Amino acid sequence: MLYLLLKSLRIEDQYSIFITGSNSKMTYMELSTDLTGRYVSFKVNPLTFKEIVELTNTKSENYEKLILDIFQWGSLPQRFYYDNNTMKTNYISNVYDSIVLKDVVERLGIKSVTTFNKIFQYLLEIEGREFSSTNIINFLRNENIEISNSTLYSYIEALCSTFLLNKVYRYDVDGKNVLKTLNKYYVSDLGIKKIKSNIKIENYSISLENLIFNDLIAKGYEVYIGKTKKGEVDFVVTKDKELKYIQVCYKLANNEKTIQREFEAYDVINDNHAKYVISLDKEDYTRNGIKHLNAIDFLMSDDF
């Protein structure tokens, strides 16, 4: 067994051991059980926007165009070496199939890859909305697929354990506690979302929200969905005991209705923690103590 070999090597205190790549027999969840106290794990994310700029030598005047490209094709490093859309699609599909077939299907003994893919597809298509097991079971039933709650959740946990999806819990702003119900999911790579969902019309606000979420994770934040008496705030983030609130919108663009919606989400939050609205607008809409940030400035900065 792999973990027995690792344990025997580690006991001698002569080795630093790095485990990378795909393994159908052991994900990070098994490692955390079998090597408790003997390892440090590092989650390797798809490239951040700043890393993509460095990789592609993109000039600042093309940053927004690059963001739209990421919305469509994601942030997996190798895909930037393909100019042909068919080759990009094939590459991303192969990455997904490798993860699913090697890390999930074999390890869990999943009998229906079709059902597994349908569940993933559904979660991608409700991204940014609250998850309901009843709704997904009804969706599958309409596809002539019957599944139990326990199997559904085991499939979803498998998707999260291989980092295809990130589960995001809600944070009760008034009660100051984390809630375990009505969570949301964000995909780790937007390119995989493109090829595995049936979404025909791109929702740029959701895509930017996902991109900001992934960047916050890369910056070391714990990220939650903020529940308020009025509704919700896109993200409540914490790091080093500091809490911040974030609203994300693709563009405010002098649309007063949109501006009011984003900024007024904070009306019922009376604490003194920093509050932000992030969008691609270059004009500064800062008001009433709520700071507006340009999304590109945020993505290119290490100092948020």
In short:
By secondary structure, the chain is of the alpha/beta class.
Distance between the termini: 43 Å
In round numbers, the mean pLDDT is: 87
| Largest sheet features | 7 strands, mixed
Radius of gyration: 21 Å
Order of helices and strands: HHHHHHHHEEHHEEEHEEH
C-alpha geometry: globular
Tally of separate helices: 12
Number of strands: 7
How many distinct folded domains?
2
Protein structure class: alpha/beta
Low-pLDDT residue intervals, each spanning 5 or more residues: none
Binned, the helix content reads: 40-55%
Descriptive overview:
Strand 1 and strand 2 form a beta hairpin. The longest helix has 24 residues. The chain is 44% helix and 16% strand. It has a seven-stranded mixed sheet with strand order 2-1-3-4-5-6-7. The model has no long low-confidence stretch (mean pLDDT 87). It folds into two domains: 33 residues, no CATH class; 252 residues, no CATH class. It is an alpha/beta fold.
Topology:
Layout: H1 2-11, H2 28-34, H3 49-56, H4 63-73, H5 85-108, H6 113-125, H7 133-142, H8 149-161, E1 165-172, E2 177-187, H9 190-196, H10 204-218, E3 222-227, E4 232-239, E5 242-248, H11 256-264, E6 274-279, E7 291-294, H12 295-300
Parallel strand pairs: 1-3, 5-6, 6-7
Antiparallel strand pairs: 1-2, 3-4, 4-5
Essential attributes:
alpha/beta, 2 domains, 12 helices, globular
